[in-house]
Amino acid sequence: MKELSLNILDITYNSIKAEASLIQITVTESMKKNLVEIRIQDNGCGMDEAFLSRVTDPFVTTRTTRKVGLGIPLLKQSAEDTGGRFEIRSKVGEGTVTYASFRLDHLDRAPIGDMSSTITSLIQANDRIRFIYRHETDHGSFVLDTDELHEQLGDIPLSAPEVLGWIGEYIVENLEEIQGGKV
Ligand SMILES: Nc1ncnc2c1ncn2[C@@H]1O[C@H](COP(=O)(O)OP(=O)(O)O)[C@@H](O)[C@H]1O
Ligand SMILES: [Mg+2]
């Protein structure tokens, strides 16, 4: 994929399909470590060991509409193409952690892309899921926790256009601050 934010969206859909009520998305960019890391953790249905061991195979999916599941194999491939690493851990009834790392300065490393749109579209379409999005660089970090937003907003849904707009800007401004205008 051309942007890592699209991989993040894709992997997060797996968590949504797994009926997670809590999804934690963590992105780390470090020039010092020459590393970009993506971690998506959910408390969804999980996978058993036999299925998990086959899930990086491009022909494995539980979907019936299209026979080929590609989200995970694609992410694994693009991470490993940059000299990075891929890992998926899961337990039935507990949840799943999907992790990918990329060498930051590798020519084939896709840019992070538009995290603001990614996170706001996830929140818009999934009002009942708690999302915790963390983003960290060498210069700092920030967190967006939809439970905290619900606490502050009371009955106003996060999918209200003015709220989504505010969330989008909050992400853009915080990213500018910790990325120092690059990546
Ligand atoms: N977080 C998750 N929780 C439970 N099952 C998952 C999770 N991620 C992936 N899976 C299982 O692995 C399969 C393959 O995932 P993926 O490679 O993204 O392809 P697709 O989503 O197109 O089927 C999914 O169909 C699903 O059965
Ligand atoms: Mg998928």
Can you offer a commentary on this structure?
The protein has 183 residues and is α+β, with helices and mostly antiparallel strands. It has a single domain, classed as Heat Shock Protein 90 (2-Layer Sandwich). It has six helices and six strands; from the N terminus they run αββααββαββαα. The protein has a six-stranded mixed β-sheet with strand order 3-4-2-1-5-6. Strand 1 and strand 2 form a beta hairpin. The longest helix is centred in the C-terminal third of the chain and has 19 residues, at 161-179. The structure holds adenosine-5'-diphosphate and magnesium ion. Adenosine-5'-diphosphate (ADP) binds at residues 14-15, 18, 42, 44-47, 55, 60-63, 69-73, 96. Residues 10, 13-14, 71 line the site of magnesium ion (MG).
Write the layout of secondary structure elements.
Layout: H1 4-17, E1 22-30, E2 35-42, H2 49-52, H3 71-81, E3 86-91, E4 95-103, H4 115-125, E5 130-137, E6 140-145, H5 146-153, H6 161-179
Parallel strand pairs: 1-5
Antiparallel strand pairs: 1-2, 2-4, 3-4, 5-6
Helix pairs in contact: 1-4, 4-6
The protein binds adenosine-5'-diphosphate and magnesium ion.
Magnesium ion is lined by residues 10, 13-14, 71.
Brief digest:
By secondary structure, this protein is of the alpha+beta class.
Strand order, main sheet: write it out.
3-4-2-1-5-6
Q: Which term fits the overall shape?
A: globular
How many distinct folded domains? Answer: 1
Q: In terms of structural class, how would the helical and strand content be classed?
A: alpha+beta
How much strand? 25-35%
Radius of gyration: 16 Å
CATH class label: Alpha Beta
Q: What is the strand tally? A: 6
Largest sheet: 6 strands, mixed
**Topology order in helix (H) and strand (E) letters:** HEEHHEEHEEHH
Kindly report the CATH topology.
Answer: Heat Shock Protein 90
Name the ligand types. Answer: adenosine-5'-diphosphate, magnesium ion
